[in-house]
Please model this.
Amino acid sequence: MSANAQTAILFVCLGNICRSPLAEGVFRAVAVERGHGARFLIDSAGTGGWHAGEPPDPRSIAVAARHGIDISKQRARKVTAADYARFGILVGMDASTVSILTARAPSGAGARLAHFLECAGLGRRDVPDPYYGGPEGFEAVYRMIRDASEALLARLCARDASAPSGQASSTT
Ligand code: 4NP
Model:
């Protein structure tokens, strides 16, 4: 990323109502807190479209609100072929999501496909699906997403700082 360019990141899970809306809200909040809000275009989507048009799960809205982040205005949507061109990085919450994104990638798609915790340097651990569990699962997912967002932001900013000025850097 050159000094003025934006990095476009799409966070992806299965339903786009529990994990990826939290990742969208938390990563955006962390970027703003660290003074890098303008450097990122951030969105989220699901590999499935069952919840398209719906707000995030009330338990995700609640855990985000407890940490001072409002994700209530988000609406779920399904990943589209255009997302592979619009976003530089599609970040899957778990290995299954990354496999689905890989299988559906249009030929010649430019986007990098990444596993969230792995690309944050936290090991290839999945962000578990909290949908069928209790509220404590949402707090644990929030914590993982917070840690991964801080680590990923630091990595992306370090990469940008070391890139030659005026020249786009690789996302690999
Ligand atoms: P998410 O969680 O992928 O983190 O949004 C889920 C939400 C809904 C369903 C599964 C997972 N569902 O089966 O409807």
